[in-house]
Amino acid sequence: MVARYPRFLSALLMAFLAAMLSPRLVMAENLRIGLVGLDSSHCEQFTLRLNDPANPSHIPGARVVAAFPGGSPDLPESAARVAGFTATLKDKYGVQIKSSITEVCAAVDAVMILSVDGRPHLEQVREVILSKKPFFLDKPVAASLKDVVEIYRLAAEAKIPMFSASAMRWYPGVVEVATAEATPAIAAISYGPAPILPHHPDLFFYGIHATEALFTVMGTGCVEVRRTSTKTASVVTAIWQGDRIGTLHAIHALPMGSANYKLTRFGQKGVVEQKNQGDYTPMLREIVKFFQTGLPPVTPSQTLEIYGFMEAAEQSQRQGGKPVNVREVLRKAGTPDAWLIPEAPAPKS
């Protein structure tokens, strides 16, 4: 027994060290993040917050270690920025630049797909899913509602955790308006920039921000959408369950990067207006927490309803402002019933 005792202690020590170095613990404490798409300011801003401990907005627990530049040659907003952001991440933050998504996935614990163009997202997601790595998908989820639904379907089928959201969902000013009263908002108005770019439904690309802010206040249950448009702006009026009304003012004349966002909430007790903006930090905290836990802060149903709203607005515009049912739009795009928000019960006669 005495002779075996040191061996027992040695084995116990080895087991302890193995547990300390297990993927689960390493992932929870020191996440290695990979980026796909270096054509958006998000890649630099996210890396700054994760990799620079001296930054006031530093978020511990994760670090960007590898990236694939990507880029869309036929989209100036992408092609003109890839080289600069790639050089910054490599030279300033020590990120390894890889020649493929597969190489990035092999070097990391989790992935953020940040390509500014929604068109390649479906194929990029397919490659990430093959690696079995959880991922965050930046806006827009895709360049069509059909692709949005397919992305969520593929991830669910492979049991790979994922989510997508606009940073505005966690802006302090937006959260303050959304939580101003315990009861649901009677109505809300959200406005913001929505410059029109080719290859995307016009609200998907940048109008997603003001749209998601509207849904953060109104919640789920959007039933019907009508849209009125000019070359410079669109007004989208929607009816929510409970006869509540949400209105989006999408200002096409404002450029990308414009800070002209605002929310107004109409409640049982009064009117509350957004006083503060925000930045990427709160959302990035949610992303890191998601990678650590595997629990997305936004469900597929919530995100799909937002994109269903934007697609319904597109269809209403083509139909001269006629009302379009969001649930029908989602069903036609292939959304499973399990991801549709339950219909409101019929009123009692």
Instruction: Give the overall shape, derived from the CA principal axes.
Output: globular
CATH C-level of the largest domain: Alpha Beta
| CATH architecture designation of the largest domain | 2-Layer Sandwich
CATH fold category name of the largest domain? Dihydrodipicolinate Reductase, domain 2
- CATH superfamily label of the largest domain: Dihydrodipicolinate Reductase, domain 2
Structural domain count: 2
Question: How much helical structure, as a percent, in the residues?
Answer: 25-40%
Largest sheet: 7 strands, mixed
Radius of gyration from the CA trace? 22 Å
Identify low-pLDDT runs.
Answer: 1-27
Query: What strand line-up does the widest sheet have?
Result: 12-11-7-10-9-8-13
Instruction: Output mean pLDDT.
Output: 90
Q: In total, how many beta strands?
A: 13
Percent of residues in beta strands: 15-25%
Distance between the termini: 83 Å
The number of helical segments is 13
Global structural class: alpha/beta
Element-level helix/strand string: HHEHEHHEHEHEHEHEHEEEEEHHEH
